[in-house]
Amino acid sequence: MIPENNRIMNYPRKITEGVYLVGNHFFRSYLVRGEICALVEAGVTWSVPQVVKQLEELGMAPEELQYLIVSHAHFDHVCGIPGLKRAFPNLQILASEAAARVLVKTKVVTGFFSEDVALAKNLGDKGQVMQAVPIPDPPVTINVDMVINEGDKLDLGRGAILHFNLLPGHSPCSMAAYLPLEQVLFAADCGGYPISEDTIFPMYFSGYEDYVTGLKKLQNMESSVLAAPHELLLSGSREISRFFRQSLASTVQLYEVILENYKIGRSQDEISQGLFQRFYRGGLANYSTGNIRVCTDLLVRRTIGAENFCQHE
Ligand SMILES: [Zn+2]
Fold this sequence. Notes:
Layout: E1 13-14, E2 19-23, E3 28-33, E4 37-40, H1 48-57, E5 65-69, H2 75-78, H3 81-87, E6 92-96, H4 97-103, H5 106-125, E7 146-148, E8 153-155, E9 161-166, E10 175-179, E11 184-186, E12 193-196, E13 199-201, H6 208-220, E14 225-227, E15 233-235, H7 237-263, H8 268-279, H9 289-312
Parallel strand pairs: 4-5, 5-6, 6-7, 11-14
Antiparallel strand pairs: 1-2, 2-3, 3-4, 8-9, 9-10, 10-11, 12-13, 14-15
The chain binds zinc ion.
Residues 72, 74, 77, 170-171, 189 line the site of zinc ion (ZN).
């Protein structure tokens, strides 16, 4: 269960001594303050003005923000980068090497900004975007300034050191960040998407085994706060542990359901369509139908692919 009081928040919000929640319900970024500051998660184009305003409210001078941690190269985690770079002159972009490789592909990045526009439109149609959506002037590529490798650390001073883990199951380029000082876990999309109180959308888009391994790793980290990029902020190790158990169970169950359907002769397309109907709701319905269909197609492919691989072993 995701407690209701953790789903409705005011922004900006102080979470721990050195961590602040900024952005909005659907696209959350986190400010980590040491002697210098880092922002975890870039969000989308239209969350940028909110983040800029909220950081100002927190009394942060634009020059103070040194680092932007980009958890992975999916459009809803990178489209905020150009706007943030404009607002914060010293900002350096940190991401995995795999993410850096994706972000120099013009065609991919252009596609990202199309999805960003579609998402803003969907939210606008539902009256959920209060501010005007800025029309992005899409850059052809996004440069990563510092590549993060497995186990790397980023020292922000005053004991605030971010530790990075590469967790490739959601995308080949995904990474989580962890702040041991306050036991805050920034799980990226590696924990699943909490669609509602009792439904977590499993997101093993690049590999089922890797995703499950990643979930178990996250579950085993000693966390007092789980700071997720979409709709979720949990505090208390028991709540966090329960969330990861639920996410893991949903993942295993989805894998089995897909497999059963495949074994009784349903086509991959039919199965994917079924998943789409089941999961295209809540915050996921803010995304374009095409985008979520790509996601459900991937879940079907990764399930069947993993099973065929096992049979060959
Ligand atoms: Zn993602």
